[in-house]
């Protein structure tokens, strides 16, 4: 089943991502901040480090994460609440929650531009902001959006116009691929590499099972590339001043 | 279960910092090194869409978005549109800002900006009416405070103005079968319309210390937490006071208030010019983006002008070479450059005539003007290369190449003004006249050639007049400046 080459409006191939850009430490008051852009989708994320106390329904034995999603215009509605919930659960699995029990870390996400793949962009920005704030993390989460066109081929990182036309799409979040000194193959468990575990998968629209697995494979490969980019951008930016004014 | 103790963990300034700031202000010193009436650096950026602006005033960062929709008007104002301002003090700006309902300071900020824009009639409401009593445009301005570095009112005001100035609403007409349908035209099909803005109200904030004796402009976050009182004056560049907000705080003498307003009008003029420049740049960039949709049209005009230039220059060659020898300080004589330019651009194209361009760079003696006739297609192909090379090089090249491009007369003037700086300071009046004549003669000949050879003669006339004027200016001004100094 050879996938057909799809004609995309901006001239990309089905495997090409939009130009990525990541800037950290963009805000002065926040403990950590990052601005992540994929083409015209731009998200600004800010993190305020552990504050004492947790909310009523949260477990005081662990740290809790609070997410506030701010849309570009208009009031907060159900869509924003859903994004907040998905982002919170994703970040909870990324952070080391037992290090600072009974604290709350706030992550605030502001949408600056929306041109498709908004939630993956927000997840990437939040992870970069958490790293900028110095919150202890297990690994970084890398997110991608895979779309399934009518001709059963998978396109990566669709724009808003493309999202409306395709059959179904899935937001996939994988852990950052590690640089390992151990020989390849020693980290596998039941012939599945440990680092291929999906953290989050949100689908919209109905797609056949086989195509969903196709999306997973493509998404995993693309996330390897994105995590390379993320690693390079974190290493290249000089370590920011450790003392930040509150 | 323990509840979050946000209120008690609110940031408080230490006694040392407070004393330091107050003592420094007593000797006219500010913590960041500014003088009492200096603004921080203002940076205005625009997004890709219309009506999207990002303003940074020092550490304060504000984003503004403008959207429009058709709604029913208010009953008591059936002919006017609606302007609504939403302020969002995002929790990312300050740890003490909380999500949810806007607090007092958010509402106060929204009201001050609203008074400046709507009640002073800065934005024209009546032009937003579509069908009186039934449908009007409602303009909504969303202000997001991203980073609180102090003086949010001023930054938010500039952001709102910048977004409103660059916003364009879609054109809509009343029509349809029964004459009652409203048709909203797609912005890509019909040009959208900008808003009518009569004047720009700029807000200037003062902070008072030491029982009203000391005042500073544009307080930072730390200065704000130490201040005794605050006053915001919204003034436009005509000197009209649009709004004054002084809500509580220390009492100040009326004379101090008058002085503040006077200072505010000076600062408002300054900020207005910065805002207008930024909007200009954005508008030209937007226009260029639209023009690039029709590259074939531009290329056609280029090809015609280029070919005729060459025809004329065959005759002028010996005269030009002689001029070049006796006027070394000009750099090179006017009309040699464009031919060279054509040569170098075809060189970039990889043609055989390239070798001759290399030869010219060495000096006039090695220059061989017409080894090959340049075909129309080759010139078409070098359109973009020609454009790039102009801006970098000498005034003449830029001037002549603006002959080729009808759209880039503005870039022509920019490069000419660059040349002004480059040109030698030791020009005398006689030389200026000589240069003028030198320029005028070939240009008129060029004009005749273009008019004879092509049907675009009317373009050529306009171009010639404009360029003569520019050339006169740039020749005369430096000599006058030198005399004045």
UniProtKB/TrEMBL annotation, chain B:
Protein known as: Protein ECERIFERUM 7
UniProt xrefs under PANTHER family: EXOSOME COMPLEX COMPONENT RRP45, EXOSOME COMPLEX EXONUCLEASE RIBOSOMAL RNA PROCESSING PROTEIN
Domain of life of the native organism: Eukaryota
GO CC terms in record: cytoplasmic exosome (RNase complex); nuclear exosome (RNase complex)
Principal localisation: cytoplasm
Domain Exoribonuclease phosphorolytic: start-end pairs: 39-170, 199-265
Example GO molecular function: mRNA 3'-UTR AU-rich region binding
Spans annotated as Disordered: 329-357
Keyword RNA-binding among UniProt keywords: yes
Keyword terms, alphabetized: Cytoplasm, Nucleus, RNA-binding
One Pfam family this sequence matches: RNase_PH_C
Family, per entry: Belongs to the RNase PH family.
Compartmental location: Cytoplasm; Nucleus
Biased composition range(s): Polar residues: 343-355
Single GO biological process annotation from the record: U1 snRNA 3'-end processing
């Amino acid at each position: 089943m050879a996938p057909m080459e799809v004609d995309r409006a901006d001239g990309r191939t089905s495997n090409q991502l939009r130009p990525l850009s990541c800037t950290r430490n963009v805000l002065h008051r926040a403990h950590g901040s990052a601005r992540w852009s994929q083409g015209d989708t731009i998200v600004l994320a800010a993190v305020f480090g552990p504050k004492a106390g947790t909310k009523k329904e949260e477990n005081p034995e662990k740290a809790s994460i609070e997410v506030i999603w701010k849309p570009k215009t208009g009031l907060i509605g159900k869509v924003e609440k859903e994004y907040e919930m998905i982002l919170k659960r994703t970040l909870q699995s990324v952070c080391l929650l037992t290090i600072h029990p009974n604290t709350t870390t706030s992550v605030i996400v502001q949408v600056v531009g929306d041109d498709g793949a908004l939630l993956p962009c927000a997840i990437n920005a939040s992870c970069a902001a958490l790293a900028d704030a110095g919150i202890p993390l297990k690994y970084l989460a890398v997110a991608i959006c895979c779309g399934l066109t009518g001709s059963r081929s998978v396109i990566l990182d669709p724009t808003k116009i493309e999202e409306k036309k395709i059959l179904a799409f899935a937001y996939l979040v994988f852990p950052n691929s590690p640089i390992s000194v151990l020989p390849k193959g020693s980290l596998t468990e039941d012939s599945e590499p440990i680092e291929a575990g999906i953290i989050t998968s949100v689908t919209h629209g109905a797609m056949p099972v086989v195509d969903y697995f196709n999306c997973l494979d493509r998404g995993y490969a693309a996330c390897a590339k994105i995590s390379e980019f993320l690693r390079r951008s974190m290493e290249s930016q000089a370590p920011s001043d450790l003392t930040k004014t509150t | 279960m323990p509840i979050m103790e946000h209120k008690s963990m609110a940031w408080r300034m230490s006694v040392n910092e407070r004393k330091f700031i107050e003592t420094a202000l007593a000797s006219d010193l500010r913590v960041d090194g500014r003088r009492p009436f200096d603004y921080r650096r203002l940076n205005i950026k625009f997004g890709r869409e219309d009506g999207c602006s990002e303003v940074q005033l020092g550490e304060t960062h504000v984003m503004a978005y403008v959207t429009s929709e058709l709604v029913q008007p208010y009953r008591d104002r059936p002919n006017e549109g609606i302007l609504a301002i939403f302020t969002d003090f995002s929790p990312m700006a300050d740890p003490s800002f909380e999500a949810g309902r806007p607090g007092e300071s958010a509402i106060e900020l929204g009201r001050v900006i609203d008074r400046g824009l709507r009640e002073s009639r800065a934005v024209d409401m009546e032009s937003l009416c579509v069908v009186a009593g039934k449908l009007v445009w409602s303009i909504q301005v969303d202000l997001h405070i991203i980073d609180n570095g102090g003086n949010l009112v001023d930054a938010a005001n500039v952001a709102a103005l910048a977004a409103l100035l660059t916003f364009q609403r879609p054109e809509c007409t009343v029509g349809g079968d029964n004459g009652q349908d409203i048709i909203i035209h797609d912005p890509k099909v019909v040009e959208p319309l900008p808003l009518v803005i009569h004047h720009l109200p700029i807000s200037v904030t003062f902070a008072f210390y030491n029982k009203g004796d000391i005042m500073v402009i544009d307080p930072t976050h730390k200065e704000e937490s130490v201040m005794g009182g605050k006053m915001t004056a919204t003034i436009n560049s005509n000197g009209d006071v649009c709004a004054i907000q002084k809500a509580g705080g220390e009492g100040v003498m009326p004379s101090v208030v008058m002085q503040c307003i006077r200072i505010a009008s000076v600062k408002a003029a300054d900020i207005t010019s910065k805002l207008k420049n930024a909007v200009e740049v954005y508008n030209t960039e937007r226009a260029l983006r639209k023009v690039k949709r029709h590259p074939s049209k531009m290329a056609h005009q280029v090809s015609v002008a280029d070919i005729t230039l060459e025809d004329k220059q065959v005759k002028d060659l010996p005269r030009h070479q002689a001029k070049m020898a006796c006027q070394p300080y000009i750099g090179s004589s006017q009309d040699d450059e464009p031919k060279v330019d054509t040569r170098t651009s075809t060189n970039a194209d990889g043609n055989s005539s390239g070798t001759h361009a290399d030869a010219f760079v060495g000096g006039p003696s090695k220059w061989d003007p017409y080894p090959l006739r340049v075909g129309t297609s080759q010139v078409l192909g070098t359109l973009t290369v020609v454009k790039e090379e102009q801006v970098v090089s000498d005034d003449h090249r830029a001037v002549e190449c603006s002959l080729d491009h009808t759209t880039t007369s503005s870039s022509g003037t920019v490069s000419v003004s660059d040349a002004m700086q480059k040109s030698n300071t030791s020009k005398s009046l006689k030389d200026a006249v000589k240069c003028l004549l030198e320029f005028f003669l070939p240009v008129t000949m060029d004009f005749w050639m273009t008019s004879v050879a092509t049907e675009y003669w009317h373009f050529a006339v306009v171009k010639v007049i404009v360029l003569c004027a520019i050339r006169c200016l740039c020749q005369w001004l430096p000599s006058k400046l030198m005399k004045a100094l």
